[in-house]
Write a structure and sequence with these properties.
With 264 residues, this protein is α+β, with helices and mostly antiparallel strands. Among the domains are: 78 residues; 96 residues, OB fold (Dihydrolipoamide Acetyltransferase, E2P) (Beta Barrel). Strands 1, 2, 3, 4, 5, 6 and 7 form a seven-stranded mixed beta sheet that branches. A hairpin with a 4-residue loop joins strand 2 and strand 3. It is globular.
Length: 264
């Protein structure tokens, strides 16, 4: 189990370095992967390797191949959905469900409509889970590539955002369905209730962030203070949080697998 997880993680890690539009054809890597598996099987069959060592090596190698191919498949599916250059800057009518909690600033609301990140400058209040039709103008997602700074373009890629743009003023913009049965819709309703409950509190935005992970109520100056004191990680899902959850799940799975022989 441990060797399988280590191999899988190594495969995903290796795939992160070659996930480019030219390198996402799985058949290029499927051949060498199957060749490695065949070589290990032949080594086991002809007793060229100690049995236990061969099995562990085979398990680790196959898991690494699986992790590598999974990452390449995931990256390929996103890259293939990227906005074509011919559609950049054109007005398009799109429909979809708002899959994120809209973040409001002084001039706009920003939200995701499936794989599109949009800015809305109108007066209507957009809520998560609603089904909208918008007239939009889109561009490919881009970000700055300054060293030692936040890689915004990579973050958009991780979020499976394939285009970003803004909603144009049009009579075609309309709400198609008030709410959908989704986690985002439930979070949106919870946010409305929490906002009403903490409206009179000075630190209502911090309470909202702790409960739902929504930082829209925290001002830039307050966020800077949280960053300076080193506690801003409490309000975001970081790699540390995911790592702690992964360790807990691994521990529970390991205990469960060890109990299986006794149960059976």
């Amino acid at each position: 189990m441990r060797f399988a997880l280590i191999g899988y993680d190594l495969g995903v890690f290796a795939g992160a370095f070659v996930a480019t539009p030219e390198a996402t054809h799985l058949y290029v890597y499927l051949g060498p992967g199957l060749g490695l598996a065949l070589a290990l099987l032949l080594g086991l069959r002809w007793r060229l390797l100690p049995t236990k060592s061969a099995l562990l090596l085979l398990l680790t190698g196959l898991s690494a191949i699986l992790g590598f191919l999974w990452h390449m498949s995931w990256a390929s599916s996103i890259l293939q959905q990227q906005l074509p250059e011919s559609l950049e800057g054109n007005n398009m009518l799109v429909t979809g469900v708002v899959v994120s909690l809209p973040q409001r600033n002084a001039i706009a609301q920003q939200f995701s409509q499936r794989v599109i990140l949009l800015n809305y400058y109108g007066e209507k209040s957009i809520r998560g889970g609603e089904h909208w039709q918008f007239l939009v103008r889109l561009n490919k997602p881009h970000g700055f590539a300054n060293p030692a700074s936040f890689d915004y373009e990579a973050w958009l890629f991780q979020q499976a955002i394939v285009a970003k743009g803004y909603v144009r003023s049009s009579t075609d913009n309309r709400l198609l369905a008030a709410h959908s049965r989704s986690i985002t819709s439930i979070r949106s309703r919870l946010r409305s209730r929490v906002q009403a409950a903490v409206a009179d509190l000075n630190y209502g935005g911090i309470i909202l962030a702790l409960i739902l992970g929504d930082r829209s109520g925290i001002s830039q100056s307050s966020w800077q203070k949280l960053s300076d004191t080193g506690i801003n990680h409490l309000f975001v899902i970081s790699g540390l949080h995911i790592g702690l959850i992964a360790v807990a799940v691994f521990w529970l799975a390991d205990k469960f697998i060890r109990l299986l022989p006794a149960i059976l």
